[in-house]
Design a protein that fits this description.
Structural class: alpha/beta
Radius of gyration: 24 Å
Helix content: 40-55%
Largest sheet: 5 strands, parallel
CATH architecture of the largest domain: 3-Layer(aba) Sandwich
CATH superfamily of the largest domain: P-loop containing nucleotide triphosphate hydrolases
Strand content: 5-15%
């Protein structure tokens, strides 16, 4: 069952995210400090905002402002604590001020001071380790795209590899690009290419240097469609050896 928090849209489908959500629910009834950690885009801030929905948010970029925020608030969310200038002083200030804090960290190799200061720690694994969360996230992002672009579209899991490199951030970006480009016209596509190439030309080998922008997607779609190099070479009107050479030339783009 998918659990969605209305305020923050934190999804709990996988076992890991469900356990994180249960701990967050428990923390809402307590007055203890907590650390939420995991890679970029895993939902740390979303979960922290669920635990302390009315707390102001402060980053660690300006240390003096952060110290003032701790002293002047009864509750506080502190993001990216791994970037704080003086962790020891910050923790001492939190203790003296008796401010309830939920902090987030993208550094999974935590400082021993953090481990000692936060007995309650919530780890949110990357999406690659909780694939059950991917589809509901895509559905949520699709609803967002439908609202933004004013066009209702049905959910269709992409046939290409999903980009989980930055977890929900890269997944959302990929869906929005797919959404925008799914009905793209030739003139639109050429306009995008023109914009991309503007300012990049000037060497003697520009034609060859940028030919992969056409060849790689053409070959990738062809292999996915026809399932055979031989059949694709026939459809493209290329010698099979020529196609093999091009695939080998572009293998660093994932062609094989």
């Amino acid at each position: 069952m998918v659990q969605a928090v209305a305020v923050t849209n934190f999804l709990g489908t996988s076992r890991a995210s469900s356990e994180a959500f249960k701990t967050a629910n428990l923390l809402k009834t307590l007055t203890v400090n907590a650390l939420v950690y995991g890679e970029t885009g895993t939902g740390k801030f979303t979960l922290a905002s669920y635990i302390l929905p009315n707390a102001p948010v402060h980053s660690c970029e300006n240390f003096d402002e952060l110290i003032d925020a701790v002293r002047n608030n009864s509750e506080l969310i502190i993001t990216h604590i791994e970037n704080v200038a003086n962790l020891k002083r910050l923790l001492e200030t939190i203790t003296l001020s008796k401010t309830r804090v939920v902090v987030t960290s993208s550094d999974t190799n935590m400082d021993e001071l953090l481990k000692d200061a936060f007995s309650v720690r919530i780890h949110i694994p990357p999406l690659s380790e909780r694939l059950e969360d991917v589809k509901p996230l895509l559905e949520m992002f699709l609803q967002e795209a439908n609202t933004i672009f004013g066009e209702e579209r049905a959910f269709d899991m992409p046939t290409y590899e999903l980009d989980l490199s930055k977890n929900a951030i890269s997944l959302r970006k990929q869906l929005f690009l797919h959404y925008q480009f799914s009905n793209i016209a030739e003139n639109d596509l050429m306009g995008i290419m023109e914009q991309y190439l503007t300012g990049k030309l000037g060497s003697k080998n520009d034609y060859r240097n940028f030919l992969h922008l056409y060849e790689v997607p053409l070959i990738r779609v062809g292999l996915r469609t026809f399932k055979s190099q031989l059949k694709l070479s026939e459809k493209l009107g290329l010698n099979r050896n020529t196609l093999r050479k091009k695939i080998a030339e572009h293998e660093h783009f994932g062609l094989e």
